[in-house]
């Protein structure tokens, strides 16, 4: 299986003529009337994507030298022989100099061939249908369903960041990546807080976890529960929380819906703070278990901050998560649980367990 014609065209244009040429070419394409949306957010009639100027920060992050996979997944047998080593599974993976038993994954193609990248950017619940309906090209499943161009945007983002996982993230590079992954949507999703409008999305659980309740972005509580609101005893944390759970509407109070609680002026500060906290904490982490915990906490912060009105999960869970794992020399994960464990309802222990056991 090879990359689609659309993907090859984008990559060739970027190589020979730069992003501006990609932008001009994409503007001439017809737009799609209906798209696959995430978390039931917004509408999406067509728009021409602007892929110009999409670059990550030139700063680099030095990853720790540990095994790309310290824990064998339960899906694999523990009784491997030398002839059944991961050399055969991952011929492009490199090894740490001087230690033939420690593997260092520096980019996605070291651990997963490009022909199988679709397994990372598609919901695992759709894998079986994708292989059944398009056995020769499962990665085109969403493109042939409701989202023409979905794969091209995700593959472009993977080349942009998962093939260069050492590049650091900040609010600018994060926004650029969002533009790439949502370039197929009919209407370009706005940043949350634009025009004072909140973004509403599901908790995907019955209640907020105690671990989520302890998280902060800077000096602001990440997620506050409206059930604790009282006119008699004003709650400063609730008023300044990044997002709020269970805000009542004119019709009802939904205790499993989250609403963002910040305006556009706060956007860059919040996103930059999340990544600054991540790089500060990861620099002193000494074990893979600790690193998995820091990564899980970072993705949870991004998901609950919900920086965009749409496209958050495809960016945070299907691009940023594998990037952070790869830059720490940990293999990406494939699990249906990633759809909900970063929304605020899962415990920290459960998140780490899934990230440890679901590595490819």
Structure description:
- The protein has 360 residues and is mainly alpha-helical.
- The protein has helices at 5-17, 19-27, 86-89, 108-111, 118-121, 127-133, 141-145, 150-162, 171-181, 210-213, 236-240, 267-282, 288-305, 312-327, 348-357, and strands at residues 94-95, 103-104, 200-202, 216-217, 220-221, 223-225, 243-245, 257-260.
- The chain has a 4-stranded mixed β-sheet with strand order 3-8-7-6, with no helix packed on it. Strands 1-2 form a two-stranded antiparallel ribbon. Strands 4-5 form a two-stranded antiparallel ribbon.
- It is globular and about 55 Å long.
- The model is unreliable at 1-8, 13-37, 39-61 and 65-103 (pLDDT under 50).
């Amino acid at each position: 299986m090879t990359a689609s014609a659309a993907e090859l065209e984008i990559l060739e244009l970027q190589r020979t003529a730069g992003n501006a040429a990609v932008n001009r070419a994409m503007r001439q394409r017809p737009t799609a009337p209906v798209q696959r949306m995430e978390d039931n957010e917004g509408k999406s009639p067509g728009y021409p994507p602007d892929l110009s100027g999409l670059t990550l920060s030139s700063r680099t992050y030095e990853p720790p030298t540990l095994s790309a996979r310290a824990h064998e997944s339960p899906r694999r047998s523990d009784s491997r022989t030398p002839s059944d080593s991961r050399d055969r599974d991952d011929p492009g993976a490199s090894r740490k100099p001087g230690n033939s038993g420690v593997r260092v994954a520096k980019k996605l193609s070291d651990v997963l061939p490009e022909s199988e990248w679709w397994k990372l950017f598609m919901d695992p619940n759709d894998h079986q249908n994708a292989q059944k309906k398009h056995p020769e090209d499962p990665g085109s499943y969403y493109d042939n369903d409701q989202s023409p161009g979905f794969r091209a945007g995700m593959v472009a983002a993977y080349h942009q960041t998962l093939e260069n996982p050492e590049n650091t993230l900040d609010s600018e590079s994060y926004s650029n990546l969002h533009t790439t992954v949502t370039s197929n949507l009919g209407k370009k999703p706005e940043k949350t807080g634009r025009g004072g409008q909140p973004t509403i999305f599901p908790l995907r659980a019955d209640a907020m976890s105690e671990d989520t309740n302890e998280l902060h972005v800077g000096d602001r509580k990440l997620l506050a529960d409206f059930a604790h609101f009282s006119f008699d005893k004003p709650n400063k944390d609730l008023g300044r929380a990044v997002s709020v759970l269970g805000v009542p509407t004119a019709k009802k109070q939904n205790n499993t819906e989250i609403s963002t609680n910040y305006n556009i002026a706060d956007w860059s500060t919040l996103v930059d703070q999340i990544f600054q906290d991540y790089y500060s904490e990861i620099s002193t982490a000494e074990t893979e278990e600790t690193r998995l915990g820091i990564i899980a906490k970072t993705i949870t912060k991004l998901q609950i901050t919900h920086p965009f009105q749409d496209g958050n999960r495809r960016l945070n869970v299907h691009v940023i998560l594998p990037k952070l794992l790869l830059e720490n020399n940990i293999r990406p994960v494939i699990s249906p649980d990633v759809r909900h464990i970063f929304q605020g309802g899962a415990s920290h222990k459960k998140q780490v367990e899934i990230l440890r056991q679901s590595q490819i």
